[in-house]
Amino acid sequence: MIRFILRRLFYGLLVLWGVVTIIFFLFNVLPGDPARMLLGQRSDVSSVEAITKDLGLDKPLGLQYIKFLNDLSPISFHNFSKDDGYWYFNSSDYGGRVQLIPISDGWIVLKLPYLRRSYQSRRHVSEIIAEAFPKTLLLALTSILIAMILGILLGIPAALTKDSALDRFLLVFSSFGMSIPSFFAAIIMAWLFAFVLADYTGLQMFGSLYTVDNYTGVKYIDLKNLILPAITLGIRPLAIVLSLTRSSLLDVLSQDYIRTAKAKGLSEFRVVIFHGLRNALNPVITAITGWFASLMAGAVFVEYVFDWKGIGVVIVDALEKYDLPVIMGSVLFISVVLILVNILVDIFYAVLDPRIRLS
Fold first, then answer.
1. Which range, of 183-187, 261-265, 282-286, 304-308, averages the lowest pLDDT?
2. What is the CA 161 to chain-centroid distance, rounded?
3. Cα(139)–Cα(227) distance, rounded to whole angstroms?
4. In total, how many domains does the chain have?
5. Dist. CA 299–CA 133, nearest whole Å
6. Domain of 201: which CATH number?
7. Once rounded to an integer, what is the mean pLDDT over residues 36-58?
8. Is pLDDT above 90 for 169?
9. Domain that holds residue 313
10. Among candidates 150, 149, 166, 148, which has minimal Cα distance to 158?
11. Which pairing describes strands 210-212 and 106-110: parallel, antiparallel, or unpaired?
């Protein structure tokens, strides 16, 4: 099992290195001058040259790539004496460090990954992501809970009433949910429930996560404004869970031990819930864990439509302003989340089915 986990971690690191490489070279071949973007109308030749040198953009592309990897890696090489050097450890950027091994005129150090600074606000990209990520995480968790609960509750009657009108309706709903794009669904949901029916639903299209009490001044989470984006983001996984629950439960209910349980005189409810559904949920649970990572990435469109201040809005705003460090850092962060969740899902599969470890 340990070899299996180490092998998955190694493959995950390879995938992450590939993502980092693609992102770096993709964004470095795009047109635009970051130095002039930082200076705006105040730009002149000497100022542009100074900013370009400070950002390291005057170096060859290959050296910039090595520096980019060095900044991202928690174990990296830095110099502490030459404050104008390319490998100088600036504590205002990198934070704290643990010096491990001296090499030539520098050190191998242990530090936190450095995602650079925003071109527009000059804030650390890691600070921007840390501020936005909890909102995206809350949205994704709420969406997956809605998808899991409603998908299972709808999948059970669909399996028990196979080929009935209800079953056909739920199959059509499942197919529609799997095929509709998240961006289109977000627009429809926002227009219908937060504009046309706003007087009846009390929902807001551009609701804030926090509400301030007028009397006490206390800021609290207003979950009402979470309903629309969470349901919209959860439509596709809901359709998947419904379909998986139906098909898996139909397969389990045809097994011999189910017929034996019925022959013993157990009630239909007990047979379905305690004997059938319990064994039918294995593929559903594994699918949910995989879909959670996808929701983290798919939240970009939904957050933008509902103005939910998560990573999605951060990425769209950075794209509009051509703020490359924020875009690159956000994409890298989402990639790391996807890779980690996929590794955890693989380990979960291996725990459930030892044949996966052997293969």
1. 282-286
2. 36
3. 9
4. 1
5. 11
6. 1.10.3720.10
7. 67
8. yes
9. 125-358
10. 166
11. unpaired
